[in-house]
Structure formats: structure tokens, C-alpha cells
Amino acid sequence: MLSRSLLLGATAALVAALPQGIDFDAVDSVPTPSVLGAPLAATIQSQVPSYSPSAAAQSAAAAVPTDPISSSTDDDSSDSKRSLTARKACDPQKAGAAPVTSPDTASAFLANANYTTIQANAPVPQGYQIVFQNLQGATQQNGYLGYYTLSSYDTVKCQQYCDKASSCQAFNVYIERDPSVEPGTGCDNPPSTVNYKCSLYGLPVSNATATNTGQWRANFQVVITASNGYVKNAPPPSYTDFTGPTEFGGAINAPIKNGQSSYIGVKVFPGPYDPGQCAAACEAQTQYDHDHPRSDGTYDPCNFFNSYILSKNNSPIGTYCSFYTQAWGKSYAVNTGQYDSNGIYYSVSSSYGYTLSPQDPGVVSSS
Ligand SMILES: *[C@@H]1O[C@H](CO)[C@@H](O)[C@H](O)[C@H]1NC(C)=O
Ligand SMILES: *[C@@H]1O[C@H](CO)[C@@H](O)[C@H](O)[C@H]1NC(C)=O
Hints:
The chain has about 375 residues and is α+β, with helices and mostly antiparallel strands. The chain has two domains: about 10-35 and about 55-75 and about 235-355, no CATH class; about 105-230, no CATH class. Helix content is about 20%, strand content about 30%. The protein contains seven helices and 15 strands. It has helices at about 5-15, 25-30, 55-65, 105-110, 115-120, 155-165, 275-290; strands at about 45, 130-135, 145-150, 170-180, 190-200, 215, 220-230, 240-245, 250, 265-270, 305-310, 315-325, 335, 335-340, 345-355. The chain is elongated, with a radius of gyration of 23 Å. The two termini are about 30 Å apart. It binds 2-acetamido-2-deoxy-beta-D-glucopyranose (2 copies). One 2-acetamido-2-deoxy-beta-D-glucopyranose binds near residues 207 and 208.
């Protein structure tokens, strides 16, 4: 059977200028998680993040024998999916900490300058940058980790929750107009209660995904305002057996040497940005190839990987890993993004290189 990596290798030889351009098929086969953000008008006060990098790495490594690194995985680790408590019409909901707008209508809420002032007075936490401000939509995108209800518009508290959660990269703080009782027969447009919300993401947020503008519940309108996005300025961790991360300005575009491509293939993981999945897949692939060498005793070791966040039209997809038999430096990290044939723009951010140490020679010892 002609493997996908062989196919990619053949394409690479023909298109030498971009040997390992973004593999759109691998990206498109990644499923969109069913939960993209905090639930609206929820009875629960929080969803505590549960993402585990070590579990994700284990599953990335375990997938290699049946799903080698030349193709993508569909590891949808969205165990943040939780059933919300069933509610009966007119059941009281927990009161929010934010001031209710007078008059108590959705349009007055959206026009209330008091909320603009509240977000404007919130500090940008150390180590983070503000990437959007005072929008009227909550973030909904890949990499959702969980959320908290706050007792004030407390960006520092939300940052502390983010720093405590594994793989948290970004957060969204916003003000939500919620019903004070469950809307339904007998109370179809109840008075509002107003909540401060903090939602956490393992992928950077941007204005492009601050798109959840609310919903109708019976005749009550849930709406969002004063929505601010913050992104962490920190490199990903280092990993055992690898040197790095080495910061790159784009994705590696390695040359063909003596007709040989050092590019082995790709894996794309949905969910938080977690290069540990690349590291685990890289080592598992080397182990597998070592155990299944060519007749001359050689195999393609995974000696280097490039990890980055891939976004599709500015909405992040997850962790993109490309794997190589040799290390490449910053001067080859030139692919910052590309269009597919349908005009969809795929962009590269948070690109880092990790080099196996010591390097694997790719030869089974004869002893
Ligand atoms: C804004 O805050 C002031 C002072 O608390 C209050 O009097 C006013 O009603 C608020 N505006 C709205 C639209 O709720
Ligand atoms: C996001 O902000 C950028 C820069 O400020 C702007 O060009 C772009 O149109 C905005 N996108 C959306 C979806 O609002």
C-alpha cells in the first residue's frame, strides 16, 4: 500500500519550493469539538478545567502503531462536555454579582455605558496581553477548557484560574444578562440577573471568535457585553529527550537534500496547544520504525519536530506537528500561512522547534 507519507514525499519532490506546506487534508479531518465555550444562562457556576497533558501525550503515542504520523488523529478529548442540570420553568437561578440594567431590557443592557466603564477599569494581568476589548460576543472556538462565574469583573482572578489550568493559553472575561428564574410558561420573560464570566482556552482567543452574542430562552433574551480577550505571552514547556523550545517566526519549510526529503509527516491534534503530543508521537514513531526497519537495517528516525498553532480564517484549530529526520533552524521557518484552493487562509502562530537529544542514527545496531 502506498502510504500517505510516500505520497507527500512524491509531492514534495515536485514542489520543492514548499516541500511540507500545510497539509489541508490532515487539518480538515480534525473534528470540531462539540463544546466551544461556556454555556449561556447555566445553572452551574463553573466547569473546572480537566485537560491533562500527560494523558494527551499517552494517547498520542498509543495511536502511532495504527495511525502513524503521516496522517492526522481525531482525538476529541472534550470531556469538558457535561450535562447541565435539568430545569423547570420558573425555578430560581443563582443571582449574579453584576449590576442589573434599568430599564431591564436586552437593548438597554447592550447600551449600558456602566459595563463599558467596568471593563475599562480592569487591569491587563502581568504576562498577558489584551487582544480585544468591549465586544458584545463571548468567545466560541476550539480549545475550550472550562469557565468560572466571578464575583466582580476580576481579570486577575481569571488569569489565576488560567495559570492553574494545564495548557491554558488565553481567557475571555465578559458580562452576561441571564434570567433570574428559568424562563417558561408563567415566567416567559423574567427579570434579569447579571453575571461576570471567565472562560478559559488552550488556544489563543481573538476578536474573530468572540461571536457568541447570546440566545433566546422563551421570551427572555440572553446577551453579552464588555467582552475582553487576553492571551498569555509564554513559550510552551520543554520535554524530556528534546532540546527546545526554539522560537520560530513561521513553520519550517525544509529544503530537499540530495533528492531526499527529511520531512516524515504531520499530525494535527484538536484541543489545547500542547506540543507534548508531538513529542510523544515523534518518539513513538521512531520506536515503531526501529522495530520495523528496512531490509538494510535502516529506518527514518524522528529527530526533530516543529509544533505550531494552526488557524483557519483566524479561528484556531489546534496543535499542528510536522516531523523530520534531522533538525532545522530558524532560517527555514518561513511559512507564516497559506491559502487553500478555496481561498481559506491557514495561518501559523506560536511556532517552535524541538530537537531530539541525542539524535537517533536511524540504523538498527547489528549486535
Ligand atoms: C449606571 O450606574 C448608575 C450609578 O449606579 C445608575 O444610577 C444607573 O441607573 C446605571 N445605568 C443603567 C443604564 O443601569
Ligand atoms: C478584528 O480586528 C481586526 C484588527 O483590529 C480587524 O481588522 C478585523 O476586521 C476584526 N475582525 C472581526 C471579525 O471583527
